[in-house]
């Protein structure tokens, strides 16, 4: 029987004698992400998918670039807490606690400021300034995952039933259809 690789967190571990320096290396965070999109933001991830040496380490990071009025839309990381540091510009950030309180914690951050988004909570960052902004965020998982709220609810394939969405959001079907169409257009284009 062939020997199979040991898997940790779903990923195979390399044999110690096959590990090389490149397994612990990533280059590219000095380059700005392309913010020419509907959200006006770009996330450059550095997790176990980019650095195999992060397997079992429980950490990762991202660079986030924001155009003026750029938004990293409401999202959650199901497997990670996030700590964000503003490197350039100014960001309006926030998160919402879980039910039933749904308390909104928000702050305006300047260069050098740090903010924490607890694991699993919906959070966002918005550049309401007229210059570009840049942040680095560290995450407490090698593969934090990301669920963008609007994409998940209105852009799923196949779509969530109109009956479910109209009742959940207390809106008419034509409103749901219009919102879903915005996501279909952005997926196709």
From TrEMBL:
Range of residues in the leader sequence: none
This protein is called: Germin-like protein
Query: Mind listing the UniProt keywords for this protein, alphabetically?
Result: Apoplast, Cell wall, Cytoplasm, Disulfide bond, Manganese, Metal-binding, Oxidoreductase, Secreted
Reaction catalysis annotation: oxalate + O2 + 2 H(+) = H2O2 + 2 CO2
Q: What is the purpose of this protein? A: Produces developmental and stress-related release of hydrogen peroxide in the apoplast. May play an important role in several aspects of plant growth and defense mechanisms.
> Domain of life here?
Eukaryota
Q: Which residues bind oxalate?
A: 72, 77, 82
Tell me the protein family, please. Belongs to the germin family.
Q: Show the Pfam families listed in the entry.
A: Cupin_1
Task: List the top taxonomic levels of the source.
Answer: Eukaryota, Viridiplantae, Streptophyta, Embryophyta, Tracheophyta
Q: Which residues bind Mn(2+)?
A: 75, 77, 82, 123
One Gene Ontology cellular component: apoplast
Q: Where is the Cupin type-1 domain?
A: 27-177
- What molecular functions are annotated in GO for this chain? manganese ion binding; oxalate oxidase activity
Q: Which organism does this sequence originate in?
A: Aegilops tauschii subsp. strangulata (Goatgrass)
Localization of this protein: Cytoplasm; Secreted, Cell wall; Secreted, Extracellular space, Apoplast
